[in-house]
Amino acid sequence: MWKLKVAEGGSPWLRTTNNHVGREVWEFEADFGSPEDRAQIEKFREHFTKHRLEQKHSADLLMRYQLSKENQGISILPQVKINDNEVITEDNVATTLRRALSFYSTLQNNDGHWAGDYGGPMFLMPGMIIALSITGALNAVFSSEHKREMIRYLYNHQASPF
């Protein structure tokens, strides 16, 4: 299963002036998560693939699922229901604001930033794959799990056949 690692890294080839704050790296760990976690991730994948033509963005479900597991001590308050003719009280507003802050704190990483999917540079991937194939370096650079995810990504983002 893929795991988001935040603010980690460092080597003679990778330097930082801020201790890698905000750095996001997805790493594959074969034994990460329980069988239930892996089944839930597979459900997310199947749902995204099924609805890929209606909703192009992944909604960061893998990341949100992982962060919800890591931030379990944070409770989300119940939603405040207000009727059309009901007066909005200060208590209702304060509860709603606390609920929003609780929700966003479950999405916040341990280094303080909010990670997210930005697929902008992915248009470079086909050219990179072609170049690595031509040079014979594809298998040296990418593991089988990386290749599987790249195939999934390209399939899910190709245009509709009609």
UniProtKB/TrEMBL annotation:
Give the range the annotation lists for the signal sequence: none
Q: Is Zinc a UniProt keyword of this protein?
A: no
Gene Ontology annotations of biological process type? triterpenoid biosynthetic process
Going by the UniProt record, its keywords in alphabetical order are: Membrane, Transmembrane, Transmembrane helix
Q: Which chain regions cross the lipid bilayer?
A: 123-142
Cellular component GO terms, alphabetically?
lipid droplet
What is the name of this protein?
A: Squalene cyclase N-terminal domain-containing protein
Write out the coiled-coil annotation as residue ranges.
none
**GO MF, any single term:** intramolecular transferase activity
